[in-house]
Amino acid sequence: MLPQLGEIERRRKNLGLNQKELARMVGVSQSMIAKIETGRINPSYVKTKAIFDLLESLEKKREMKVREIVQGNVIGVQKDDAVSKATKAMNETGYSQLPVFDGLRAVGSITEKTVLNQILRGRDPKELSRFSVESIMDEAFPIVDEEAPVTVISALLQYSQAVLVTKKGQIKGIVTKADLLKVVPTL
Q1: Is residue 2 part of a domain?
Q2: What is the pTM of this model?
């Protein structure tokens, strides 16, 4: 099912196209685009589909990819490392969350919140510092390919502290909510 004809003008403008440019790309006259946008004519299904297919194609090309915002240096800990190593890494880097690895494979995550919750539950901090990360870690961060659109990351970050990014199956970076904020233009 095709979107409403009223979407054409909004999507055209979002792409920075004028009516003449859109018409040329679709193979119709500028006046036809103007009439469609003002509701003076109802184009054929074939013309309507051609317009929406073109708009969608242009939108996909312009959509920002994860590789454009990913932080390449992934700081993490191994599952057998002591919690003290994880908290030290967080303090030194300023990161509030770290992926947990078993070799090169992501198996969990550890966050400031995870550690603080253990202390709030009555765990002695000195004792906790000697525990293995694996014993208190949370679920692993979601993993996406670097060619995924940023919209995928933004949806995942509503439920996770970070997202790991792969290239050809190898973890190459990480994206956090703070990284996502960097794509918002400042005025």
Answers
A1: no
A2: 0.68
